[in-house]
Every structure is written in C-alpha cells, then in structure tokens.
Amino acid sequence: MRLQGKVALITGAARGQGAAEARLFAQEGAKVVLADVLDQEGTAVAAEIAEAGGDAVYVHLDVTNEDDWDAAVRSAVSSFEKLDILVNNAGIWRKGHVLETSSEQWDDLMGVNAKGVFLGTKAAIPEMRKAGGGSVINISSTAGLVGSRTSAAYSASKGAVRLLTKSTAIQYAAEGIRANSIHPGPIDTDMGDQVWPDADSRESAVGRTALARIGTAQDIAYGALYLASDESSFVTGSELVIDGGSTAQ
Ligand code: NDP
Predict the structure, then answer these.
(1) Quick one: pLDDT at residue 54?
(2) Contacts of 220 (CB under 8 A, 6+ apart)
(3) Residue 58 is a catalytic residue
(4) What is the pLDDT of residue 235?
(5) pTM to 2 decimals?
(6) Domain edges within the chain
(7) Which residues of the chain have pLDDT under 70?
(8) Which of 9, 10, 11, 17 for mutating ligand 1's site (highest number of atoms within 8 Å of CB)?
(9) Which of 58, 154, 222, 226 is catalytic?
(10) CB of 131 closer than 6 A to ligand 1?
(11) Looking at domain 7-239, does it have CATH number 3.40.50.720?
C-alpha cells in the first residue's frame, strides 16, 4: 500500500504503460483517474480496477485541449476530493527524418507530447498546492536523451519534456511539488508495434539493449510507482532511465 490515501491522474491510461500504471497504483492503494481519448478501452480498464476492489474513474481527456484538462482535474477533485499525483503519460510516435517531417507532423507530435505535458502540469499544480504537495511524473523517452535514428520530431518533443520537468521541479519545490521524468527504452505496447513493425526491426531494438530484451509496461509502472510514492520524497528534477541499458553504451 505504497500510495495509500493518494489520488492520481494518469493520461493515456486506456492501454499500454498508462493502463499498467493505473492498475499498479490502484493495487498500492491510490484512487485513480484514468484519462484518454480511447473512451471504450479506458472505461473498461477503470471497471476492471473497480471489480478488483480498487477506486477508479475514467474521464475523456485530449491532452492538447485546455478545457478537457480543467474538466479532468475537476473530475478528480469531485470524485476523490484532491489530486496528489499526475502522470503525463499520453504520447504519440510518428516516423520521419528531418526532411521527411511535415510541419503538420511536427505540430502534432509537439502538441501531444510536449504541449500536453505543459497543459497538464499547469492544470494540476493549483490542486497539488491545495493538497500541500504533489508528484508530477512525465514520461519522456530515451529519445529525449539522445538523438533518434527514426523520428526527429518525436525526439525533439521528448527532449522538451525532459527540460520542462526540471523547470517545474525547481519552480515548485518550495511548495512540496516534485517533478521527475522517466525515460523508457523499447517497451512492448501498441506504440512499440509501430516503432518495430517487423521481426528484423524488433530484433535490432533488442540488440541495442544491454539486457537483451524489450521492456514491459510493468517495468515502467514500477518506476512511476517509486516517483509517485513518498519513498522518493528527496527526488525532484531527476531522470529515471528504464531502458535495459540502451543508453549506457
Ligand atoms: P500506447 O500508444 O500504447 O499508449 C498511449 C496512449 O495515449 C494511447 O491510449 C493513446 O491513444 C493515448 N493518446 C494519444 N494521444 C492522446 C491525446 N491527445 N490525449 C490523450 N491520450 C492520448 O503507448 P505506450 O504505452 O507505449 O506509451 C506511453 C508513453 O511512453 C508515451 O508518452 C510514449 O511516447 C512513451 N514511450 C514509449 C516507448 C515504447 O517503446 N513503447 C518508449 C519510450 C517512451 P491513441 O491510440 O488514440 O493514440
């Protein structure tokens, strides 16, 4: 019960890493607001958590929409009375070297992956202040630490998340609000299937890890659990790299 009494809002929670975080946080005692644009899938995950004895509600949230954010935070507070934890997990990936990236594609990736994190942070901090503190967990990527061979705009958007996290950390530390980024390597989710659509590309992703495997959504959820819990009370502005050793070499 590492999150007993805490309320968490998780974006992109209908599937993949967000759903794994929602399930794990609920198992550890948190009340969870699952947010996504995939309403049917998100509602199903919330129902599954509730059936297992957890507290969970689903809200529709397009992270690029400021009004949706206000409504999602209001829904967290009206359902569970406060907000302690925000996991900015929703993200999209699109392939493209610089010359193959249209300005629309750039805007889409920056909109969801970077602006979405900014809007979420802005919407959540006033409620965290009222709660006396909080933890913002931003899901970046190893592509936010080093350049990407496949997607220039994705990498740029994840780099923006890395430094927005540090600014958030230093600007709100005095109020007990922590902010940290997680940098997953290759993780087995629907997005993973887009990034390595065939056996060869998957094998080469495995080959870039030192631990010789693709990670699981659960591998990331455990990192997020640590950053969400009070066990990480001295941790802010940090980068938790969970990549099987990909960027260590
Ligand atoms: P998934 O694609 O499986 O899940 C992402 C979820 O976010 C989907 O439900 C998706 O819905 C949702 N989403 C997309 N756009 C929005 C939006 N505008 N508003 C709200 N929700 C939205 O991916 P993962 O679980 O793998 O990814 C989670 C995070 O981890 C992302 O930020 C990703 O960039 C990051 N990451 C993933 C890695 C991997 O290898 N899988 C590696 C490194 C980082 P929809 O289907 O409509 O897009």
Answers:
(1) 98
(2) 17, 20, 21, 139, 182, 184, 187, 242
(3) no
(4) 99
(5) 0.99
(6) 7-239
(7) none
(8) 17
(9) 154
(10) no
(11) yes
